[in-house]
Records
---
Amino acid sequence: MTRHLQIFSRILNVFTNRKLPDDAVSPSERISRYFVQKKGRCSTLKNTVSYGAFMPPPNLRESVYRTTNKPSAEIWEIGELFVAKPMSEKVGKIKTIQGRADITAVQIMNKKGLDVSPDTEPHPFHANIIGWPEAKDEQKMLAVELANEASLHLK
Amino acid sequence: MTVITCPNPLLRTYNTGSSETSIGLQKIIESTINDLRQAISWSRACEPLEVLRETYSECADNDWDGYGAKAMTAATYDEAIRFLNSLPSNVPLPEIIPEPSGEIGFEWNNGINKILAASVGGTNMITYAGILGKSNKAHGTEIFNDSTPANILENIKRIYQ
């Protein structure tokens, strides 16, 4: 019975164009990577994203947000509340979102080994880019490729 | 014989001599270097070093980015200076990129499909990756012995062709 309800709910969501946060990420979704500093993350002069915006953290789970169909103000608000604010508390300095790199999920999934995995903490539309290789030159190659295809949005 | 060298005037001179004349000569050279640092072209060259210094001070503690980034070490900073110092004057200056691994990266970006990234981590190794034109990628590691590896220089050249 529960299984049938889940299927029904999914069908309903497709018709109402509503995504469940724990749904698998669809290839056409927009994925946003926020940053709290411009230095090393983008070039405002060239309007490009730097590879530094996509270099994975030591745990190889790169925090991103699923922002398809969200109004601009809400996208920035998510960044302030769920990225900048906790970061400020952690490092003991006030941090604000400076910009974000947007890319579609398929552009990530097309890269060797990478995938976007939903992770509803700390926000229902939070996700992680996973599948990073261990070798640093390979990580860098993927980060360069993502930066090459991402679009820059400054706050 | 006394040898006083200054491979790149941005940093320091090396003096193999210890006589008064030699030390005096070194002082004159250093004073000249300081004067030249004020020149516009040299000021431009000093900019990445200033950014590098700021980056190091901002990233000297663990978790500097709030995502668990590793601290940059003094060895990494020193190697990054030596790497910048080793770049020939005809090579465009890179952007400084702090990396979550604690390495210091350098980026040459000449638009879509023309990006080269390289980084050092205080281990005498350079890790690099780049898109050198459409469907043309390269990545790997090179030993760094205070001169820019030919492979890196060749890749930078391809970015700006």
---
Amino acid sequence: MKRWIISLFTFLSGFFYILEFVLPSHTHMGKALQEAKPHVGEAIMVIAAFAVGLGVIGVCRHHLRKLFLRQKGWHNSLALLLSMFGMALFKIWEKYDPPELATRLHDLLFLDLYNQLTITVFSLLAFYVASAAYRAFRVRSVDAGLMMITALVVMLGQIPLGDRLAEWLRLPWTLTEARLWIMSVINMAGQRVILLGAYVGSLAFGIRVLLGLNRDTILEKDG
Amino acid sequence: MTDAPIQVLLLFLVLSVSLLLFIYLARRGQRIELRRIAGLESMDEAVGRATELGRPVLFTTGLEPLNSVTTLAAIAALTRVCRVCAKYNTRLIVTLAEADVYTLVKDACQQICAEEGKPELYREEDIYFLSTMQFSYASGTAGIMQREQVGAAFFFGAFAAESLILSEAGNQIGAIQVAATTSSYQIPFFVASCDYTLIGEELFASSAYLTRDPSQLGSLLGQDLAKIAILILVVAGSTLATLWSVLGPEATWVEALLSGLLGGVLL
């Protein structure tokens, strides 16, 4: 019964959007579907909000348990709960009664703390790119060698030194031109093939989900 | 809002009919051979290696919420990994960036452990909803990988700049890593850092490949046929566009054909 209900709702909600997309708006049905679209969207948002609520409850339960049982890393859980509720509290306080203190506390948490931590994590990428590139560009095969030469051309084509080098080597084209050709022809062709496959794959997967054909998922066994 | 051009509707119908036809044929018993996908073959091996090392397995479903097909495909792969972990009595840690995915994944993992006769293996505290914010999620996942010293890591779903943070964190602790994404800009990072990478549509084929369910295998064949149809259209469009640029505006028949093919969208 549970599976049947889930499959029916999945099919109906998916089919609604397909019909709304393909039916011309001047037809009676197309017009009705377009009018209903915002309301269906709102209903979906309400359901999604419940899911977010469940997620927040799950997070609180997980970290409160850790905190009260003094499990390993309980201080991290305390920091998370304080930050989560603190951020929400200061933002709500600021919105309804904007005193300077609430804004300052919110800015302290969001701009001075959260944003800086995000930037720090993002900056780690520079080091990770270097270590990943080192592994990727080790010339162990013809393929790896070709990739390394291509990467070298693309990287040198990004800086003025590359063009100076091409001039000095008397190459018939600048490295900027070579880079643009690699990126807009070879690379773009590869990207489009991947995207085309992914779009068709996602359509096929979507149809399988709509028809309830995807086995080995939560829907497999009837509840 | 502008209506979808008739060409889009026709293409959608052709794709849908070919998919449904092959699903029907596969269900009737038509044998379908799949090429070997190393990344999917390695999933059991990765869990097995983590088990031998006595380390947990980590699975993450990327940044997108439940309404994304990519996330649904990742969850389908997660159910398989969860089943294998339950079979081997291996601890599975799941990190998530969306609350709606968290709710579904929690139920799915609990149900699979129960189905495998090992309900005690399900630990609610091992399913983490970290944050919807990209880098909070990334640093949370990387931290868990380091602290728990995971033996195998699976990155399935849609990823952005955090892909390299996750995969390099796994690389540093020597975890065997399998990634699958449709995010074309992240594929090179995963290729450089992971042991196996599923590219684009291979992610969507994963549940069919792993379960060998006739309906899903049939849809794979249908989608290949659809791709051939699209490639024919691409070749036809490119030829007509080339002809048009060579022959000039006088060649009105080329323009008419090209316009018909594109539905007047680009001309």
